Amino acid sequence: MAEIPCAWCGRTRTVSLDNLSHTYMQTRFSQDIVRGTLTCAFCQKHTLFEMTGNDATYLPGQLYQEDLEPNVPESAREAFEDALKAMLGSCYRGTVALCRSAIEEALDAQYVPGNNLFEKASKAKGTILRDIEFSHADGARVLGRDALHKGKPVSMSEAELAIIITVQLLNHIAERPPYPASQSGPTSN
User: Fold this and answer.
1) Cβ distance 107 to 91 under 8 Å?
2) Which residue in 17, 31, 134, 142 is deepest, having the highest Cβ count within 10 Å?
3) Phi first, then psi: what are they for 129, rounded to 5°?
4) Where do the DSSP E strands lie in 16-142?
């Protein structure tokens, strides 16, 4: 049995393999691995988890959501939380696509102009994004594009890396001042 804490209110629920149904299961080294979403009976919010045998081995609601700075925009935070749900459901193509979306949402919140992530990241380079952050944003763009539009498979390790890089990018973008208005182009009144 494992104690799964709600990532939102902290209440715990005892979970064992005996009382789980409709979850993703796989076997690794003769141990069942269960991934799922616990809906808290008290606050009705969702906490993602993984169990190996009867031990909680992965609680991304606590490992990653708490890693986001409080000033990360809500739209980017929501896309990121959906990316976590996709990853836990072993939907790795969806994970990288939603990471790409979260990064674009964060740049939108900083008023960076552009019609897509490439345009926004290019405009933000040198102001909001340093070279390394631009490289990471462009990598997320390419990985998400290839997964969505070219049907390329995405491995679990690529999805995990996308999650980690997205946390770093969202925090970095959120701590930067908004895109300079003088560089955003003409405005109409």
Assistant:
1) no
2) 134
3) -110, 130
4) 24-28, 31-39, 46-52, 55-58
Taking the CB of residue 141, how many other CB atoms lie within 10 A of it? 20
Q: Which runs of consecutive H residues, i.e. helices, occur in 64-116? A: 74-88, 92-109
Q: Say yes or no to pLDDT of 24 above 70.
A: no
Per-residue pLDDT band at 18 (split at 50, 70, 90):
low
- What are the structural domain ranges in the chain? 2-59, 66-179
Neighbours of 88 (CB within 10 A): 20
pTM over 0.85: no
CA distance 113 to 120: 6
Q: Which residue has the higher pLDDT, 181 or 3?
A: 3
CA atoms within 13 A on the CB side of 69: 14
| Domain 66-179, CATH number (from 1.10.3720.10, 1.20.120.330, 3.90.180.10, 1.20.1530.20) | 1.20.120.330
In the numeric block, the tokens 């970095």 are attached to 172
Q: Which amino acid is at 88?
A: L
Q: How far is CA 114 from CA 24, 45, 75, 99, 102, in A?
A: 38, 34, 17, 18, 15
